Structures are given as C-alpha cells and as structure tokens.
Fold these 2 entries.
Entry 1:
Amino acid sequence: MKKSAKAKSKTRSRKSTTGFKPTKLKLLIPVPSDIAIAQAGKLKPILQVAQEAGLQERDLELYGPYKAKVHLDVLQRLAKRPNGKYIDVTAITPTPLGEGKTTTTCGLSQALGAHLGKRVFTCIRQPSQGPTFGIKGGAAGGGYSQIIPMEDFNLHLTGDIHAITAANNLMAAAIDARMLHERTHTDDEKFARLMTRNGEFTDAQRARMAKLGIKGKTLADLSLEDKRRLFRLDIDPKSITWQRVVDINDRHLRRIQIGLGDEEQGHDRITGYDITVASEIMAILALTTSLADMRARLGRMVFATDTRGAALTAEDLGIAGALTVLMKDAIMPNLMQTLEGTPAFVHAGPFANIAHGQSSILADQIALKLVGKEGYVVTESGFGADIGMEKFVDIKCRYSGLTPDAAVLVVTIRALKMHGGGPKVVAGRTLDKVYTEENLELLTKGAANMARHIQNAKKFGIPVVVAVNSFKYDTPAEIALVQKLAVEAGAEGAYNCTLWMHGGKGAIDLAKAVVAAASKPKHFKFLYPLDIPIKQKIETIAKEIYGAAGVDYSPEAEAKVELYTRLGFDKLPICMAKTHLSFTDKPDIKGAPSGFTLPIRDIRASIGAGFLYPLVGTMRTMPGLSTRPAYMDIDLDLKTGKIKGLF
Amino acid sequence: MKKSAKAKSKTRSRKSTTGFKPTKLKLLIPVPSDIAIAQAGKLKPILQVAQEAGLQERDLELYGPYKAKVHLDVLQRLAKRPNGKYIDVTAITPTPLGEGKTTTTCGLSQALGAHLGKRVFTCIRQPSQGPTFGIKGGAAGGGYSQIIPMEDFNLHLTGDIHAITAANNLMAAAIDARMLHERTHTDDEKFARLMTRNGEFTDAQRARMAKLGIKGKTLADLSLEDKRRLFRLDIDPKSITWQRVVDINDRHLRRIQIGLGDEEQGHDRITGYDITVASEIMAILALTTSLADMRARLGRMVFATDTRGAALTAEDLGIAGALTVLMKDAIMPNLMQTLEGTPAFVHAGPFANIAHGQSSILADQIALKLVGKEGYVVTESGFGADIGMEKFVDIKCRYSGLTPDAAVLVVTIRALKMHGGGPKVVAGRTLDKVYTEENLELLTKGAANMARHIQNAKKFGIPVVVAVNSFKYDTPAEIALVQKLAVEAGAEGAYNCTLWMHGGKGAIDLAKAVVAAASKPKHFKFLYPLDIPIKQKIETIAKEIYGAAGVDYSPEAEAKVELYTRLGFDKLPICMAKTHLSFTDKPDIKGAPSGFTLPIRDIRASIGAGFLYPLVGTMRTMPGLSTRPAYMDIDLDLKTGKIKGLF
C-alpha cells in the first residue's frame, strides 16, 4: 500500500489534460457503510461530468441534476475518432458472496482517471430492483469505489427497466388476447376485415405477407385462404415461451394459471413470471447497436410456434413497432459518475445465465469514442470468466465488432482458499477461520481455479492482469503467493488492491499494469466460428473453457438441436446457462476440475437477442423474498429527504 | 366566432405582464390529426415555461428538454402568497365518446393565458398506457387544445405510473411471501428472531407494538405470546383485498391462480390484476399533501384482516417505508405546456369510479401559489359532474383545503340530444342523423340532464359557466337554445366554444365569463359532513345529486357498513363507484331521471387514500384488448425518430 499511496500523491496534483477535475475523497477508517459513503460523496452536476467527458449539452437528456441520457447520434458525430482501449473486468469462479468485480471496475476507473490522469469511462449494468428490496447488497460497487448517486442507481434510475417491463407485458397481453380473438371470431372473412383498417395493411402485415409469399395491396386482393394464413397465427398454446415479467422478487408468480375470469372462460392456461432482467427485451437492449437494429431485433423475437410448427415472431403479432416506441428512450445510455468524479455509463442488465450478462454495447461504443485513442473504457462481464468473459467475447464482441485490449481477473484470497478445499462460504454466516488466518496450502491448491481462468483468457488472445481484492485479514505472504502463481499461469502480473478501503488510490499499481497490458499488440480471436453445428459450438465451450471431457444431451435438448437447425437458428452464438459457482454444472465442485461430462437439459432460443441458450441444470428466473427482506429496513428520512437502510 | 376572433387580435398583441410569451398557433383547415398538430407544435424549453410561471431552476428536476418535476418545497417558499382562482372543468352525463373535458381544460387555459393575458396553469391527470395501446384515443386534449409533447404525455412521462406499479406489486409479493413464511416457520421463538436484526426492532415493528400495546426495547424484553402477536400477522387469505397491477389491458390477468410452482405448493390462491391506475397508491398520490402525509397514508393502507378480524396495514407488514422510497420522485408534479405555451401540471390519474378520478392536490396547490391572486388554475374532474364534481368537492377539496371559484360544465349538442331520447351513441360507428341535423325537440328534452348538473353545482355554492363544445354540424339555433336553457337552469351563461378547431381563440368568450364568475363572492359548502353515519352519507349523495328516491343495500353492503363502523372507518368521505353514463346505476337510463332506487352491491375501503367506495353495479378494473388494438398502428419512424400512429 505504501507504494500506491506515494504514486497517488505524485499523480493527484498533475493537471489533467482533459479539463477533468477529480472529486477528492475523504477516506474514513473504519470504512462507513456503502450508503453513508455514497451520501457523503460530492456530486458534480452531470452536465459538468458530460462536458469533461467531451459531450455537449445537446447530446444529453437530463434526468434531474445527476443523471442524463446520451443521444445515440454522438456516435455519428465521433465516427472518425479512434477508439480507446477496451478493458473487461472479470473474475475467478466466485463464492456466493461475490469477489468485488463492480468495486474493482469502479476503483480501477477511479485510479486511471483521478490518479493517473487518463481519460476513462466506466460501463456497467443497471441492477434489478428485486435484490434491492429482497437481499441486502447493492450493485453500485462498494466502499470508496462506487457509482453515485447510489440510490438512483439501485432504484428507478431513468426508467429503462420499467420500459422493458411494459414492453414485455404488452406483448404477453397481446399473445393471449390474440388467441382469444382468433378462437372467438370463427368467420375467417369477418376476422380478416376486423384485422385491417378499411382494408389497408399495416407495415407488419405486409412483412408477414412477404414472409408467407402472399401478394396484394388491399384486403380485396386476397383469397380467403390467404386471408386465413395472414391473419390467423394459430398459436400453439403449449409452445408459448413468452413469460410475463416484474422487477420484484415475487415467487408466487413463478407458475400461475391465467384467464380464470368469467369472460375468459375456456381461455385459461398455465404460465409464469420471470424477473424483468430475464426478459429477452433486456438482452436486446444490451446487444443492440442502433434504433433500427433494435426495431429489427424486437421484430425477430420468437414467442411460440404455430400449430404447423413454424416460428411466430413479434412482427407476426404486429407489436414490434409499439415495443420499439416503448423502448425508444431506454436505448440511450445513462450517464452517472464514480465517487472520484470519473464518468460512468449504467445501461442494461440482462441475466448472466439465461442471457449474456453484459452492460450495453451502445454504452461501450460511445464511451470508446469519447475517451479516444489515449483513453480507457472499463467494463464488467457477469459471473466468473468461464461464463462472463466467454460470453463477452463470443456474443457481445461478436455483435459489437469491438475487441478487448486487456482483461482484469478479480481474485480474492478467500475464494482461492475455498477452491483449495476450504469449508463452504454462506452469505450471512460467519467465515470459517481458514479464511481469516494465513493458510498457504489451501491457497496454493485453490489457485488452480485462477490458473484455468487465466489460460482461458489467453485462448481469446487477451492479456490478463490479476487484481487481488484484498481484505484486512489477508497476509503479505498470501498476497505474494497469489502474485507468484498468477504470473506462473500466464498473467501479466497480479496486484494487491484496496479499492474498497481507498478508492482509486487503492488500485494505482493495477491501473498502471492495465495500461501496460493494453498497449501490447492484439491477437484477439473468437472461441468458435458461427457456421459450425450447434452441438460443436456447445462442445467447444464445454471442453475448451470448462474443462469437460464431453457433453451429454437430454432428449429435449436433442429435439431442440434438430428444431433450431430446421428453423435456421443454428448460426447463432451460444449462451450457456450454467451455474457460476463451478466450472461444472454442480455448484459444489470447486477448483479446476476436468474429465467430467456436461449435461445439457434443454436448449432455448432468444432469436431477437440473437443467441441459443442451452440449460445446464435448472436456472431460477424469479427470486423469492426471504423471511426478513431488505425492504423492512428501507425508509425515507422525512426531515432530510434521504433514503435510509438501503444497504 | 367572429367576435372571438376580434377579441383575440386585440389581446394577442398586448404585452403580457408576466414575461409570458404565448406560442403562436398556425391553424389549419381541415384540422389535422391530434398527433400531427402535436408534432408540429412549437415547444418552448421547459426551463422557459418554468421561469415564465415563476419557478426557478433549482425548483426543477429536468426530464429531458420538455418535461420537469417540480420540488415540493416551492410550497414553503410561496406559502405567504395568496392563491389564484380555482376553476373545475366538469361535464354533463357523457356519451361513450366523451364530451371534450380535457380539450376544454386545455383550450380554456390557452384562452386565459395566451389571449386574455392572465396568469394561468392547467392541472390534469396522467393517462394510463393501457388505452394508449388498446383503444385509439389520446388523453392529452385534442385538435388545437392539447398538452405537448403528447407522446411523452401518453407514454412513460417521468415514470410515476411505473413507480406505482413497482410499489403496489412489491407489497403484493410481500403479502404472499409473509403468509408462506409464517406457515413455514412454525416455531414462534425462532420466527421472532428471524424477523429482527440482532434483536432490534425496526420503526415499523415499534409502530405495531404501540398499536398492540406491547412494550419493550429489544426482543429479549418480550414474552413468547407478545412475540407471537407482534410478528405473526395471521393474514386471513380470504380477506385479502390487495391485487397486483399492470398498466396494460391484460384481461387474462383479471382472475388468476398464483403459487402453483413446486416450491410454493400448498400456498396457491386465487387473486387478480387491476390496471395500475386503479391502485390505491395512485389515489394516495392524487390526495396527498406532503411527503410526510404520503408516508402516513401508505402506512395506513389496509390489505386484509387477520384471522381475528382486525385490519392489517402496510405498516404492519413493515413495507410502508420502502413504498415511500419508491414513490419519492413520483410525488413531484410534472411540468409540461399547452400548444399555446401556457404551463401545465400533469400529475396522478386515479380511476374515476373505484377512486376519485382527479389529478393531484399538490399540483393544484403549487399552481395556485404560482399564478397568485390575479391568476387562474384550471383543473378537470373525471366523468360527469354527478361523479367527478361531487368527488372533487367532497373528497379532493376536503383533503386539500382548497375551494373552487367556478365550475365549467362542458356540454355537447350531441350528448344533449342523446339525453332527449336520441339513438345509442357507439364508439367507432357512424352517428345517427339526428345528431348531425338540427333537432330542437330532442335538444330541449335532453337539456334536463344539463339542468340537473347545473343545479347540483349550485348546491356546493359554485357558480357554473356552460361551455358548448361545438361540432361543425351544430346549428346556430341549437347553440342558442342551449344557451337559453342553461341560463334558465341557473348557469352564469353558456358559450359556444371551438377549442378543437381554434385553440384558445375558440374559447375567449368562455374565458371572460369564467373570469367574471370566479370573481363573485364565495358560498362554497360540502354536500355532507364527515361525522354522520356511512349510510346517511351515501343516501345524501344518491338523493341530492343523483335524484334517487332511496338506496337499497345488499347483505354484503350491510355487513361492510357494520364492519367499517366497528373498525372506525366510518368518518371517511364516500367515493361512489357508479357508471358515468347515467345518473342512475343503469348506463342506458339517460336524461334526468328521478324516483329510482340506487342499489349498493358492496362497499370497499381505501383507508390509505381515505375514502370508502360503495359499488353501484360491477366496476371493471382491468380493460381488455380489442381484436385490432391500437398498438398495431404504432411504430417509430426510424428516419426521423418520431412516433407514428399514436392517435
């Protein structure tokens, strides 16, 4: 730490070349709660943050004084500017407590921007409100490495998730209403008339005509059979994959029966709710590259097959335009700031198992232009590197065209000891003493997990810097051992970080190493090409990244391979829905196992988002509330207007 | 019209005394679609609108360039300023097409502000997104009398309705989770420990202790029996009145069975969804007068009774603080503008049957201070005057302490002819020719409906000005007849208005008459005092306002009268849930019927909002989607970024 502190005093006084003024931290010991630090944080007006980042007032839609949305046409304006360096923060296989990826992402940015005088942007995910009111634990980083205002970050922000909820559920209502109307109106001729306005077709109807090979300018040009094909979707109720969503931990909605009202009699069915961030629309928000691309992706979303087995899309339903209208503001990235005043985009937050778990492509693209050639964009990928980084590369980078310059692998001594055979780590329970006392043996054994992740990153051609997110009970010998083993495994280096306790000052060595690693020549490559068969893609990930000997498919999965190949969805990348707590499908198997067989229970498709997701085990897409949920501590201080009890 | 046009040219050039610059309209004939007019409308930056209205930059939270939330502390700053005149726009018993209340509200404001040089504020409701994507038809006014940007108005606006959805559904999830946990944890001692953090009580737990007469500082001070009473709510599942909500027309959610998942087995129950604007939290948003008041009202919301028959509240559930946090931004009124650049608050939009159907008290209070002594606040009450105005007076004004200075009763020749016996008016069908040709006989007969509403308003001591919202096929003789009959019934006058076609210019005579009426001495009174029995309040409304001879109570209603009296809820005002299409409970009975018996099917309670609502017939709280819903026409023009097909 002494070294870092010195480095800092040298750099802090250096005048930034970008007009950027760092926000000075007043570090307290003991470190106060996250919300206390966040509320004591000095906020620059977001207009100043924007201007320092190279944005103009007309590029912004302000949402109060400390948040703004950024118009996408910034991308056109800066099209010719070279991109900055692109840094992905990932982690080893984590404990259930998490290893501090977001804290590292924020703290590293603070180090680069506020201490090394680099142009920098942080790009991270917007969290779901479910955990905010369910489990105590924020997603804005922690300690002195946070995004502020953390209350806005963890609550409505600018309403993007609410827009997704609205769009997702409008589509769900439309599906059930359409089935009811198709069954109720048995006269094909009359139904066709009802579905047009004065016999004119909508754009969506014309799109469906093109797909079905039906020609005509108005309804009168169509045969009865064509009218039937055009207007009756003949949705197979059993094939519906579209669920309703709510951004709340409401476990009683996991499986429900709808349509029990007197006026819907005979139109009941079993369905369920997911939490909003599991919606395909969230994955689309994260992967889209323009308004036109989002409109097209929303149109391509498949919600069911018809009774003849053909895929039915949002476009067939005639709802893709309305969904785009609901999402037109959400597509703009949200500008916020870190505790040390560096700029941050908080945008999109899809699930990291059934989806790819990354913040938005658009935020990264804009940020890379804004920081320019000499600058750095620090982003984060969900879960451990076996899932997060692999999807970052093979899904996100594939759709964005961007390539990373370096990866930061976050490790904790605690997690490595767990991988070495330490007792189970459980949230809310006191840590076993092997975690709070020096134990080089467990650490050495557990470092195999870190080594596998480092080697995996190198398969993508990405240089890896290890960030040791250290705790007060980690010993110098333990940290030195991790540093040695990391370098032996192929990392550029490993650095002790105290970002939680010291903010950017606690990550100066890491930041310097990242700068060095990112300046190396690029040898980036995808893990697999898109034009190989579905099974071959799955097997490549399983063997190359997880260390599996082979893959076992259930009959359902085999059937889906066949179905998706027949429907032409086999050219999509693969998004493995696997536990993040192990390289295998079993959360309890730690370390770096090999020789196992990875079971594929089923395969699902997010055609609009653009990936197939094999289910490795059961994925929960709707959390529950505990006996004593976090909402019990949350209230508004009526005197100050400040939120209390948030974390 | 000629007279109005002249009056306008005189006043338009007059320099406003307030620094207000009207936005000039370019009136086109034929009148374009609402969205075409709205998108062609010149928007002032909202900061300018705010400054012209007397607000400072620090009073605002900007939401993009054309919307802003206004901080409530404006009320403290302006506390000593006298209020402006308070004008309520209401209507006769409408046809299903609506008679143009919002158009009149906007156009009258435009006339007062842009043509007569008065300080003015429009205060109206935020519409639900359900109808926006369901039935074609906006809620932002129409023609040249609208609130803009109309797309924002009809879509997310600043997220208030989304916040209500989130808060309402968090509470719903909490109720079901609590029942599950109380049943699962059978050990009282252990359950009590789980419900505290280190044995400490939350504020909500202390509030429940006070209510139950339990004393103690920590868990250790309590007897097992006290722990049991404190932590076990013993919710009677059959008594739960709290529904989930979604701001979408999703009829399949009207009645559903939840908790069918494997892990919730045995915890299933039948419940349903309402549209979000039917949530009690929406009614609270509309009736609250401060952050502290909202916190208290949210805490008082009753969601069920326990197995011993005691009312259970959000405070008992420990969730009122979290709900307040979710609603802390929504409580601030949203500033927008009319097509002629006068300021408007768009804030809250509760149902007009099961709730009171009025925009927020806080918006009115702030607006009345901002316009000051010589100014005018024009607000609107939902449905016809028998419901809207009565609730405006007896519920909204009672909670706000504000009293209206004049009422504007909107009539159409079309609706009066319908009341006189004209054929049924159905949305989407061509009007019968009695409505498009002169027919003084039907009109004379139908004017009895208008007369009843005028006389009702006078029972509250409010002077009434009639606004004839005229159509191109209304004849001069018809308009003159309405004017004569209105004055005979006690109105201050009746004025031909062409607000749809001409904006404020089409309501100058009306505006002048409103100015004159509002300057008369006040004789305002409530219809009933709060301290009479529930039945007496219901009967007063039924007889005095509806013209009923008496009231008939179902056994359920009788039981509720008894229950609510026992629980101490009998001092609340009454919010009749009755059809707006008739003075009676039967939508088909037009005109001004009397001598009928009003049936009360049941009585429900919104204790947090602060009213009891007797059900006169069945009220639908979740609309459906038609065979061809509006969403089919809605899309984004990818070249211009503009919304098309909205209305």
Entry 2:
Amino acid sequence: GHGRAHHHARRGPGTAEDQLSRTVQALKIYSTAVAPEWIDYNRHLRDGYYGLVMSLACDALMDRLGLDASYRAQTGCTLFTLEEHLHFLHEVEQTDQLDVCVRILGADRKRIHAAFDFHTARYADPVATGELMLLHVHQGESTGAAPFPPPVMAAIEALKAATAGITPPGPGSRRLELRSR
Amino acid sequence: GHGRAHHHARRGPGTAEDQLSRTVQALKIYSTAVAPEWIDYNRHLRDGYYGLVMSLACDALMDRLGLDASYRAQTGCTLFTLEEHLHFLHEVEQTDQLDVCVRILGADRKRIHAAFDFHTARYADPVATGELMLLHVHQGESTGAAPFPPPVMAAIEALKAATAGITPPGPGSRRLELRSR
C-alpha cells in the first residue's frame, strides 16, 4: 500500500511555498534521498520505509538533545520506542527528497512524545505525518526506564517550548477504525 | 528507540507454548529472519524495520486475497496504505525469526483494516502488534478509490470471519499521548 489516492495542494510558487520554506528550515531535523530499493510495485515509496526514515530522523533528534553515540557509550542509556503512528498523505517518488521536521508534543522525566512531518518540494502540505513515544532506558543486566539527566531534560524542554505550539501541518495520531464515508 | 524496557512472559515449555504454536500456525501470513543490517546501536531490531516487515506481511496478505502481481497488472488496481500504528513490546534480536499473524478487524467495499501480530520463539506474547488501514485504488491518469471485485470481497469476508473474533494477543492502535505513570 502506500500513499493517499487523492491528490491536492500540489506545490506552486507564492505564499504557500514561502511558508513551507520557512517552516522546513526552522524545524528540519533530517533529510534524505529516496533510495531506489525503497520504491515498490506501486512505483512509489513503500509504506514500510517511512518508518525507517522516521527512525533515522529520531537518531538526528537524539544527537540534537545530547543523547548521541558518546552519551550512549558513557551512560549505557538510550531511547526505546514504545509506540508509533503514521498517516500517509501523498505518494513519494524516487526523485523526491524527504525533509523531516520535528515537534516535541510532550515530555516527562523519562519520556518524549515527538511528531515528525515529512515534506517534499512537490507539495505544500506534508506527504506524511508520524508520531513516536520514546522511553529513556538504561541497558544492561536489568534494563529499565531511567530519568533524563538535567542537561538533556533542559534540551528537551527548550525544543518543546520552540515547537509544541506550532500548528500541526497534518493529522495527528489516532486509533485506527473504519468509519463510514 | 525500539522495544519495551520491561521483560516478562519469556516463553517456556507447556501450555503457553502449545497455544502459541497453534495460533501462529493458524493465522501466520509471513515469516522472516532478521537481517544483520536491521540491528541498530541498541543491539536489537531497529524500530523502523518493524514497519517494513509489516509491509512485506501485507504483500503476503494481498497474495492471499487475490490482489497479487497478476491482479495488479491486469486491473491497474492495488492497495494504498492510509494509516499505520505499531506497539513495540519486546526487543527482537538478530537470531530471532519473526512470524507475523494477520487478523481482519474490518472491511468495506474499498477498505481493509488489518492487524498484524509479531511473534518470536522466545516470548509467548507478541513482540510487537501493528495495524494498517488499506484502500483499494485504481492507479493511472486519475488515481482514485475503487471497489473490490466480488471474488476479492469474498476472500476478505472469509478471512475476516475466520480472524476478526480472535482475542487480540496484544494492545490495539490508539492516539499517542503522555499519560502519568
């Protein structure tokens, strides 16, 4: 499967484009080309690879928050993903570049609720939106949840303050269910 | 990220194992080894690859329902994924084999709501649970939703009748939100 059947809001010159440029520049955490092997029999990006891109964007988020490789090596701590949601809104082609923006929707002493919005140059609105619920854990003999150290907590709170109030550019996570249409 | 920090229900001999064997055999739609490149810095299956495995399991579901490559070539129709949810419940290691079971939670003339439960030999309960909302579309000049042909609709209804009533072995999809703990 992969992408919505209805196309709209194709990106053109003017206000929407300017606005997107600003938004993407302000919050962009990760960019990637679409690898040829990510294209499936529907001739666009296979649904399964959006999650991989979001996972790589989450690595970039970890770097930004001070949860990078050296932190992980020194502390034995890392993030585990508890839960994930994705909306597929437009088809992505092999020639597209994916720009992923992050918003911190919530955080507590051990958890981060992050939203990731996927953009391409061809659409003013996101081609996909996703969310992750992340838990800070100490790995070892007895793996378990651990509180963020103060500098990381401060970085999370700063990014949350900068991004939590942004109007979501697409739909948020929800329970999947068939609704009459 | 990737996997829950709390481990329980490690699989042992006896009733739970027997029950799992029956369940997996009855409804298994797809199995795969864990590719070495799917393991990340946390030394287990990267979260992003669960969605790829679910996508490949969905391909197997399409084959079973008559939406296979020859159907797609003859009709120009395929499935698009509208929405996806995953719960990550246990860490998956490189030596694990992933067995994916499918349940049809709902269907209408153009849509399928499918649940996928991920099993390994080391746990009696699923290591992950996921759901997809799938739309049948005709690809071409004007891509749009299309009703399933009667034989496919019958296959969907038959699989739904066989699986919709199964007690979910893990949690279902939901809106992501931080809850106090």
